[in-house]
Design a protein that fits this description.
This is ATPase AAA-type core domain-containing protein. The protein has 400 residues and is an alpha/beta fold. The protein folds into three domains: 150 residues, no CATH class; 179 residues, P-loop containing nucleotide triphosphate hydrolases (Rossmann fold); 32 residues, no CATH class. The chain is built from 13 helices and 15 strands.
């Protein structure tokens, strides 16, 4: 980052800026800024106009993942150390929190004194993953996270502000976002759904976890699964521990406006039951997730008693039932691809398939370093499970 540049706009403004109106009375100039009727945040734009007599340019800071939040304290430390900003001069709004039994800063306005103001709204969160090993702000692992942040600035600082926002993207905490899966259950007389919460795993870089070749496959899967009234099947296979389930935990958080129905391994055989299809007909435009699906996707020609489950899957994914119900299927399995029914691989029915495997040595080292394990002991390809559970220290979730 470059040093601050002191400019002469505080009193008279620079007439060359599109947002500067030097001949307008102050009261009229301030009316150009939006009112803050429903927010506790200071009226940043009006304060900027009042000081610099110019309507500011604005950059809304964001991250590449909606589960990533900026860490307020890390940002303030950076502003102090790199830009010599005194946070004691900030305009803040404090709110009392019963959990930490203290007042915390809910909103903050920083004036860097050079034609740049930063506004941020914050909240407390203890349900986080902290790969960067940042220090918590309060007891019981509570972090002060920035939910919204905007940089208001004079136009000449555009490049500087973009660089500043790029620096902020490195100062993040991963919040434990979750979604609800509907799990298939069975009573004595009927099937029913029961909701379960699934947390999003800490995957900020798919290529780092699964290799660069997987990214295009993921993009294709997401595009199809987020298409309304669609059908088809996704087949994910590979050796145990290679990350199939880990990826599904990530994938389902990216699916919007569809019911996610989880079929546990001990219920997979129920797909062949005559009563199961009428039950599914009540869940149109849903996505079925079937783990360990080996027993219901094997080639019908290899058995003297062909499985009705395969026929039902084929009909759901590309038959008349599929046309009517618009359901999609994600199936995982460990068996060899040559043993499954070839009809499942037919073009038009298959959305995508991918074989998960061990990461090569270099990729394993990079991911291991990222997770804080170091890489000195890695000399051969490793599965995600092996990388995550080095030294017997199991991470937050089982990798499969």
């Amino acid at each position: 980052m470059r040093d601050k540049t002191i400019i002469r706009t505080e009193e008279n403004g620079n007439c060359s800026y599109a947002g500067t109106c030097p001949n307008i009375p102050t009261e009229a100039l301030l009316s150009l800024g939006p009112e803050n009727r429903f927010s506790l945040t200071p009226p940043t734009i009006r304060l900027f106009i009042g000081k610099y007599r110019t309507y500011p340019s604005t950059l809304a800071c964001g991250t590449d993942d909606d589960a990533l939040s900026f860490h307020a304290t890390t940002i303030l430390n950076y502003l102090r150390d790199e830009l010599h900003h005194d946070s004691n001069k900030d305009c803040v709004t404090r709110k009392y929190d019963r959990k930490i039994k203290k007042h915390y800063v809910q909103s903050r306005l920083c004036d860097l004194g050079n034609g740049i103001m930063i506004s941020m709204d914050s909240s407390l969160n203890a349900d986080v993953q902290n790969p960067n090993k940042l220090l918590s702000d309060y007891p019981d692992n509570y972090f002060l996270l920035v939910s919204e942040m905007e940089i208001h600035y004079l136009p000449e600082h555009d490049t500087f502000v973009q660089d500043l926002a790029s620096q902020f993207t490195k100062m993040t905490i991963f919040t434990s976002k979750s979604c609800t899966l509907q799990m298939v259950c069975k009573s004595q007389c009927e099937y029913y759904l029961s909701g379960i919460k699934i947390k999003k795993p800490l995957i900020t870089d798919l290529a780092l976890h699964y290799g660069s070749n997987f990214v295009s496959t993921h993009d294709k899967i997401i595009k199809n699964l987020n298409t309304k009234e669609s059908k088809g099947i996704v087949l994910l296979h590979g050796i145990p521990g290679s990350g199939k389930t880990h990826y599904i935990r990530y994938l389902i958080q990216e699916i919007q406006d569809k019911t996610l129905i989880y079929v546990p391994p001990d219920m997979a055989k129920e797909i062949s039951s005559p009563a199961f299809l009428p039950f599914l007909m009540e869940q149109q435009d849903a996505i079925l997730i079937i783990e360990d699906a080996e027993n219901i996707i094997r080639d019908r020609n290899d058995s003297s008693t062909p499985s009705q489950a395969v026929a039902n899957l084929l009909n759901l994914s590309d038959g008349l039932l599929g046309d009517a119900m618009h359901q999609q299927i994600i199936a995982t399995f460990n068996c060899d691809l040559t043993t499954i029914d070839p009809a499942l691989l037919r073009k038009g029915r298959l959305i995508a398939r991918y074989e998960f495997n061990k990461l090569d040595v270099e990729s394993s080292k990079i991911l291991s370093d990222k997770l804080g394990f170091g890489s000195e002991s890695i000399s051969e390809p490793m599965t995600l499970a092996e990388i995550y559970n080095q030294g017997g220290n199991e991470k937050e979730e089982l990798i499969d």
